Amino acid sequence: MLPYGRQSVSEEDVAAVTAVLSGDWLTTGPHVAEFESAISAMVGGHRAVSCTSGTAALHIAYAALGLGPGDEVVTTPMTFVATASTASLLGATIVFADVEEDTALIDPGAVSALVGDRTRVVAAVDYAGHPCDYDRLNELAAGVGAVTLADAAHSVGGTSHGRPVGDLADITTMSFFPTKNLTTGEGGAVVAKDPALAQRAAEFHNIGLIRDPDRFEITDQGPWHQEVHELGLNYRLTDIGSALGLSQLRRLQQFKQRRAEIKDRYDQALDGVAGVRVPVRRDDVDPAWHLYPLRVLDGRRREVFEKMRAAGIGVQVNYLPVYWHPVYARMGYRRGMCPHAEAFYAEELSLPMFPDLTDTQVDHVVEQLVEALH
Predict the structure, then answer these.
(1) Domain covering 11-249 in this structure, CATH number
(2) How far is CA 189 from CA 156, 179, 218, in A?
(3) 3-state DSSP call for residue 99?
(4) Which tens digit of pLDDT belongs to each residue from 157-203?
(5) In degrees to the nearest 10, what's the CA dihedral of 320, 282, 190, 92?
(6) GO: which molecular function terms (predicted)?
(7) What is the CATH number of domain 252-373?
């Protein structure tokens, strides 16, 4: 089965991990700090806090913001459930805004109608690797005293109006899962423009431990002392994962270029093919294409999905609208809330997309797709 996504691991990656295994630090060591510094440099100098997954990054970000009962998070239903569920776990109320009909990105017009006094966060998702309209979203959030969060699980390495992902929203979360734009095995990161917010994120991801003597509330202990002022969790990334991430970062632009080439090859091959729509790209945006979200028209998505899987092509569907999940349905959310998102879901089919995908394999995917459509 040709997968829809997979990691690209080189001999250099293997050597980087092996070197850590032969050293003194498997975790909480120098590679973690080096990886965080490299991410920071990539995103314009904002502090980065590495962590164990993209889901952990979201939980850390919301916790650092002090999110709780009575607060609202306006977000998109066209995402993996963690964008919403990590805020729900903290007691916040999720308000779902519909997406743009063509990009499936959160629609600023829909957000404008939903933000209010209780809005604490506008959480956008760079679906498929395409950055959202953060100029507009930042304006809307600031207008009600809220902040923007970019769920950049798909878009690490991309840019918008010449600015890198990680510099577009107040706080950005990243995922380094194997199918993502670079991998640490499992892993993620939080990037915050506000240093105080970044510090809270760092402390939450490290069990809430305080080691700064100037902040101690217990002052009669020895040099071993550390204390907890606010509860946190152990979401620390290891040196093993960080070493892999550092090695992968050196190839990120190569990965991005190859993903763009694959996207263009699909576009050209599918130009004029009846029954499908190819993904669009806004001007002044340079996406890091994580997915190739084809739209299969005329109610044929499931049929085509099953034919492609039977032919050995690992297509996928991304995503079930979040409020369709039973956990949200039991909270009172109902289908029909976001018609554009639901229409997109009904047609979306992710074709294989990963850097090691060859031109021959891309052409084979297209051949099988055309056959499935007939």
Answers:
(1) 3.40.640.10
(2) 11, 16, 31
(3) strand
(4) 999 999 999 999 999 999 999 999 999 999 999 999 999 999 999 99
(5) -50
(6) transaminase activity
(7) 3.90.1150.10
